[in-house]
Amino acid sequence: MNGLIEKDQELLLFLNGLGNSTFDPFWLLVTGKWFWIPFYVILLYLVYKSVPLKKLLFVLIFIAIGITISDQLASVFKHGIERLRPCHEPLLMEKMRMVICGGKYGFYSAHASSSFFLVSFLSILIGKKYKALPYILIFWAVVVSYSRIYVGVHYPFDVTFGAAVGFLLGGVLANLAKKVVNRKTI
């Protein structure tokens, strides 16, 4: 286990070290929640155009449930495992670029989990209608996830694990949502 933790720290230092103070404002925008509101509005519009109006509320409820579960599950893991964020790790603080620092614990990344939840949920639900959407969503989720490493608040494994949880959760809830959307009556 120590070997895995060391590799995770080495990868963090490498990826975080690629940063430059010139690009810090950009990555702070990318990692912030308000920056993505126009993107979310576009996604909401695509869902609106793809789902019968009578069933749209159910799909939106599934999305809200998925993001809530994703976020709250990450919180449970953070306080259950108590792995310090890189920016709180005494052995790394002097070696890494600290752009911002969040709460004390960081395993696993709720940003990555929520982003990859939307990737799988929307790709399964409306990806056939909008062929480029899954690729756009994957690119977006990877950028958001990398931003967490760039700013120094998550290790690569935090992000990878969060992405996996979100992706699986999105798959499960998307398949349930499809059953609701495809039902003749509600």
From TrEMBL:
Keyword DNA repair listed: no
Ranges of residues in domain Phosphatidic acid phosphatase type 2/haloperoxidase: 60-174
Transmembrane domains' residue ranges: 26-48, 55-74, 105-126, 133-153, 159-177
Entries under Pfam families matching the protein: PAP2 (PF01569)
Alphabetical UniProt keywords: Membrane, Transmembrane, Transmembrane helix
Database matches in Gene3D superfamilies: Phosphatidic acid phosphatase type 2/haloperoxidase
Sections of the chain in a coiled coil: none
Stated name of the protein: Phosphatase PAP2 family protein
Natural source organism: Epilithonimonas ginsengisoli
